């Protein structure tokens, strides 16, 4: 009889713990997973269309149908959880947020690598020219492009985000843009994506 009482007592205690965990957090009392943020190490870029298809950089496209898509390449995940008790740990674990970068983008620079005439024969772009005024930027798949510096201002970066760069002016003739894409982060990290090519008309 005494053994049966102990069994019931243990069962009651276990159920009480389970119920209290459910009240505090629907996913239970597991504190094994802590929320993370990412430390961006580098970026990558590829050429795509508005329908997310990869494009061949040796072919010529309408200027408004070819994009340079930027995405996080290398990152380190870092814990943001202080050791302040299981209840806070549980609350965080039960409310996972998107993985956010600890940095922001300080600047994006597009620097011309070849001399071209863009919108007219007299619209000459020498080697070393800042091409930022010739491009707009937005989230990949969005239809609301903005000037590059406007878009990146206070931009919060999440793990799966992709951004697109698009030429904002129609060339007067078929032309090939070659440029370096340089991304500088607020912590000083710099990614240099050299010799990007866009063949446009």
Instruction: Extract low-pLDDT stretches.
Output: 16-32, 82-95
* Strand line-up of the largest beta sheet: 3-1-2-9-7-8
H-E string: HEEHEEEEEEHEEE
| Quaternary class | single chain
Strand content: 35-45%
The amount of helix comes to: 10-25%
Supply the number of helical segments: 3
Radius of gyration: 26 Å
Distance between the termini: 89 Å
What's the overall average pLDDT, rounded? 83
Q: What characterizes the major β-sheet?
A: 6 strands, mixed
Question: Which structural class matches the secondary elements?
Answer: alpha+beta
Feature tags:
single chain, 201 residues, alpha+beta, six-stranded mixed beta sheet, 18% helix
Protein architecture, described:
There is one protein chain. The strands form three sheets. A six-stranded mixed beta sheet has the order 3-1-2-9-7-8. Strands 4-10-11 form a three-stranded antiparallel beta sheet. A two-stranded antiparallel sheet has the order 5-6. It is of the alpha+beta class and 201 residues long. Helices cover 18% and strands 37% of the residues. The chain has helices at residues 2-24, 86-94, 148-152, and strands spanning 36-48, 67-79, 100-101, 105-112, 116-117, 124-125, 135-139, 146-147, 162-167, 175-185, 190-200. Strand 10 and strand 11 (190-200) form a beta hairpin. The radius of gyration is 26 Å and the shape is elongated. The model is unreliable at 16-32 and 82-95 (pLDDT under 50).
């Amino acid at each position: 009889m005494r053994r049966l009482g102990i069994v019931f007592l243990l069962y009651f205690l276990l159920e009480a713990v389970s119920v209290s965990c459910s009240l505090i957090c629907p996913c239970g009392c597991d504190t094994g997973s802590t929320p993370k943020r990412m430390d961006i190490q580098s970026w990558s870029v590829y050429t795509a269309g508005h329908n997310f298809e990869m494009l061949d950089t040796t072919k010529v496209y309408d200027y408004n149908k070819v994009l340079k898509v930027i995405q996080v390449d290398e990152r380190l995940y870092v814990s943001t959880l202080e050791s302040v008790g299981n209840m806070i740990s549980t609350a965080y674990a039960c409310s996972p947020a998107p993985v956010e970068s600890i940095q922001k983008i300080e600047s994006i620079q597009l620097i011309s690598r070849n001399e071209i005439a863009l919108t007219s024969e007299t619209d000459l772009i020498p080697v070393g020219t800042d091409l930022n005024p010739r491009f707009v930027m937005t989230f990949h798949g969005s239809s609301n492009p903005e000037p590059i510096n406007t878009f990146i201002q206070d931009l919060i970066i999440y793990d799966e985000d992709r951004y697109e760069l698009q030429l904002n002016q129609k060339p007067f003739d078929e032309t090939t843009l070659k440029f370096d894409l340089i991304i500088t982060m607020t912590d000083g990290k710099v990614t240099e994506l050299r010799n990007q090519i866009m063949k446009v008309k």
